[in-house]
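A common beginner's mistake is to predict each chain separately and then try to dock the pieces by hand. The better habit, illustrated here, is to supply every component at once so that their relative placement is modeled jointly.
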Amino acid sequence: MRLSRLSRTTLGLVTGLILLVVYVPLFVVLVNSFSTSTSLTWPPPGLTLEWWGRAFRSAGALEAVGTSVQVAIVSTIISLVLGTLISLALQRFEFFGREAISLLIILPIALPGIITGIALNNFFRTIMGVPLSIWTVVIAHATFCIVTVFNNVIARLRRLGTNLEEASADLGAGVWTTFRLVTFPQLRSALLAGGLLAFALSFDEIIVTTFTAGSGVTTLPIFILNNMFRPSQAPIVAVIAVVLVLVSIIPIYIAQRLSGSEQQRR
Amino acid sequence: MTHATVPRPRDSAARKGSVFLSTHPRARLALLLSAPLFWLGLVYIVALVLLLVTAFWTVDSFTGKISQTWTLDNILTVVTGSLYQTVTLRTLGVALLVTLIDVALALPIAFFMAKVATPRMQRILVIAVLTPLWASYLVKAYAWRSVLSQDGILEWLVAPIGGHTPGYGLPATIITLAYLWLPYVILPIYAGLERVPDSLLEASGDLGGKTWSTLRLVVFPLALPAIIAGTIFSFSLSLGDYITVNIVGGANQMLGNLVYTNVGAANNLPLASAIALIPIVIIFGYLFLVRRTGALDNL
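With all components supplied together, the output reads:
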């Protein structure tokens, strides 16, 4: 199949156009963060730096960022451990119920967040009698983050095969030594990619968080939702959004470098 | 000639454990599986099953406490109530439309990224698609609220040519949801198309296949599992959403809103559970339908 010049150009134009539409709302947020209008007037009546100054001095916003980072780090660590264990089990072994387990792992993201949310809310409060806190949020987040780690690690394991591990065992290394010196180093970049995704997923989650957060726990998305409709706070929300997009370029860049260096090795 | 002798490993507990594990693969498997299955089983499956059970309980209207008397009332209310039927149909319609729009938009982009763009361009495009994913979900919904508002940028753009913004309502909800889930649909389709070897496309061309027939008979069947994987995201995420519809949907309600109100303000968890069964049944039906296509391996 050879695509004609015309169809290549058309495809390129369509791609460009869709991406343009994708970025317009983000651009509007960027402009709104400098707008003197607190409602959503376009074009902005005037420009100001007031919201940027206020956002960086807003104790609520900074505290919310801290809470979100804590939740995301702990749930990423849990999901890294659990995700690696389960992908080793599913990739290296044949056993009854394997299909069921792989369905079980994707279920927390395949089912709508509101279902995971009320199921856990009901479980913690009514059944276990545990008050909601930051830990209930961590447990909930870790549960749906397992899948991102799992996907990355199992894809890597499939590609690696077992030759090197067998060689290591033949040379006398035990199970632990083989994992530490042979398997783990080859998984490292997959773990980093999966971990980054898990972190991002947890950092941005709002629905499950709403149902599992204790009354004093304000993650960044909860802070944004609480302040979005307050006219005096809305531009600060826009500032936070712009900062988030800018900061997010770092992990995307790392992930790209990782997959790029791998393609060269192949 | 002297023989180098390999020293015998020390007979430590770790060594014993290692020997035991390498001669007992089942024990190795059990060790690997125990922690994740304990977590997913206890936290997730038990919680889901109990949600199901709660749908058959009632709330004492005086104390507001859940009483564990078995009843089919909640299920009957949900199945026969006209409110629930209307909202279910509306939610399903929104989810289907969002999914269709996303697939229609994602196919050309993913194809361009995977098969037309140069490697350098490809990397830039992946970043361009991924970056909006990292902007907060809420901020993007809010951005559309400002784009679609009566004095927003859309009105400003189309008013000179006689157009109007759709304002807040179901169309705004569909646009915003399609926007939110688009990267989730592009990425699996792109990954799926990248796995289609170029040699197959060339073979099809050499055998006389025109562009369109190659796309239809070679590319599409090979990419189908990835496309379905993408639709699982957009469909399921739309089905349970209640925040976007609050932000841009005007007074419209989706299933998620009914669940949310019954958990919070109305404090009727059993009824909320019964309503939540609707999307659960729909999603399971969908997963069951597509499980043979291999879509689940593409998530």
